[in-house]
C-alpha cells in the first residue's frame, strides 16, 4: 500500500496518514558518508529503527561538496516510494525542489543538522539540529577567554552558505566582534576536505606569525587544522578550538593541540530523526524543532559522562 498524504500543513502539523499504514523504508540521507560524524548519525538511526517494523537505508555523497549527488539520492528515494526521509541538506536551497517532490508524494521528511532554505518552508515536518548560532557564540566566548580578547584569530570554515555554517561561523564572528578587540582572519573554506584545511591552515600560520587563536568549524576542517598546528610547531602556542568529536579531535584535546572542541549530539540526530518520522508515519504529532545539543569538551571534562555521551 502506498502511503499518501491527503493534507499537508506547515512545519510541525499533524499529517493525515491512513490508519494501519504498512511499514516501509526510512531513507536517511546525509551530506557525506565519508565522515565519522555522519557514521555516528547512522548509529543513532540504526538504534532507533529497531523494533519499529520499518527498514532503514543510509546514504550520502562521497563529499559534502557533491550537492547534485545528494539531490539525486533524495529524488531516487522519492521515486522508489520510501515511507519517510531523514535528510541533512548539504546546500539549503539546492535540496528544496527534491524535498518539495517528497512532500507532494506524501512522504514525511525530517531535516537534520542544517536548515533547508526558506523556500522549503511547509514541505517538511520537523527540524533537528544543534543550535549552531549558540554553539558559535560558545566557541567565541571560549576564544575570547583564551586570547584575552585581543590579537588576531583565524576562522577555518568548511562550505560557504550551508545552513550550519551560516549559524556556527556567522555567530562566532559576530560574538567576537561585539565582545572583544580581536581581528578576524578569514574565513577560509576547506570544502570539508581535511587535506585542504591542512594546507590552508599551514599558509595562514606562515602568513600570520602573530596569530593568537584559530577556530576549525567542522570535523575534517578541525582535523586538518590540528595537524597543521602540529607540523608547524605551533601546537600549544596558538589558542585552538575545534568542532565535532572524532578520535583525532579527542586526541588533539588530550595532547593540548586543541584547547577544546564543541561536539554535537550526532547520535541523537539520527536517533531522534528516525523516531520523529516513525511517529509521523503513525499519524502522531512531532515538535517542529528539536535541539540535539552541543558540549564544549576540554582536557578537564574529556572523560566525563557528558562528554562520552557525544564523542564518537
TrEMBL record:
Belongs to the bacterial solute-binding protein 2 family. It holds the Pfam family Peripla_BP_4. It is found in: Cell envelope. The keyword Cell wall biogenesis/degradation does not apply. One of its GO terms (cellular component) is cell envelope. Gene3D superfamilies: 3.40.50.2300. Residues 1-23 form the signal peptide. InterPro entries: Peripla_BP_I, SBP_2_dom. It comes from Phyllobacterium phragmitis. This is LacI family transcriptional regulator. It comes from the Bacteria. One of its GO terms (molecular function) is carbohydrate binding. Residues 26-285 form the Periplasmic binding protein domain. Coiled coil: none annotated. Keywords: Signal.
Amino acid at each position: 500500500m502506498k502511503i499518501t498524504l491527503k493534507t499537508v500543513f506547515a512545519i510541525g502539523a499533524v499529517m493525515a496518514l491512513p490508519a494501519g499504514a504498512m511499514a516501509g523504508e526510512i531513507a536517511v540521507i546525509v551530506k557525506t558518508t565519508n565522515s565519522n560524524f555522519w557514521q555516528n548519525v547512522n548509529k543513532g538511526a540504526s538504534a532507533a529503527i529497531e523494533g519499529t517494523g520499518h527498514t532503514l537505508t543510509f546514504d550520502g555523497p562521497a563529499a559534502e561538496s557533491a550537492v547534485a549527488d545528494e539531490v539525486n539520492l533524495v529524488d531516487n528515494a522519492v521515486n522508489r516510494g520510501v515511507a519517510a526521509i531523514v535528510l541533512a541538506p548539504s546546500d539549503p536551497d539546492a535540496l528544496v525542489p527534491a524535498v518539495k517532490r517528497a512532500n507532494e508524494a506524501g512522504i514525511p521528511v525530517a531535516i537534520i543538522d542544517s536548515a533547508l532554505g526558506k523556500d522549503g518552508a511547509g514541505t517538511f515536518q520537523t527540524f533537528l539540529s544543534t543550535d549552531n548560532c549558540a554553539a558559535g557564540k560558545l566557541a567565541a566566548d571560549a576564544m575570547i577567554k583564551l586570547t584575552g580578547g585581543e590579537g588576531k584569530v583565524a576562522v577555518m570554515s568548511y562550505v560557504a552558505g550551508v545552513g550550519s555554517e551560516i549559524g556556527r561561523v556567522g555567530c562566532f564572528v559576530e560574538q567576537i566582534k561585539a565582545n572583544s578587540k580581536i581581528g578576524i582572519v578569514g574565513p577560509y573554506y576547506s570544502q570539508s576536505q581535511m587535506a585542504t584545511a591542512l594546507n590552508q591552515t599551514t599558509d595562514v600560520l606562515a602568513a600570520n606569525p602573530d596569530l593568537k587563536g584559530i577556530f576549525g568549524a567542522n570535523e575534517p576542517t578541525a582535523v586538518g587544522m590540528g595537524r597543521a598546528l602540529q607540523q608547524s610547531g605551533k601546537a600549544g602556542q596558538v589558542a585552538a578550538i575545534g568542532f565535532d568529536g572524532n578520535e583525532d579531535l579527542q586526541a588533539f584535546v588530550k595532547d593540548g593541540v586543541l584547547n577544546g572542541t564543541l561536539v554535537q549530539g550526532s547520535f541523537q540526530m539520527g536517533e531522534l530523526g528516525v523516531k520523529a518520522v516513525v511517529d509521523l508515519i503513525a499519524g502522531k504529532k512531532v515538535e517542529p524543532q528539536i535541539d540535539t545539543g552541543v558540549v564544549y569538551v576540554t582536557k578537564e571534562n574529556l572523560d566525563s559522562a557528558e562528554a562520552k555521551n557525544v564523542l564518537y
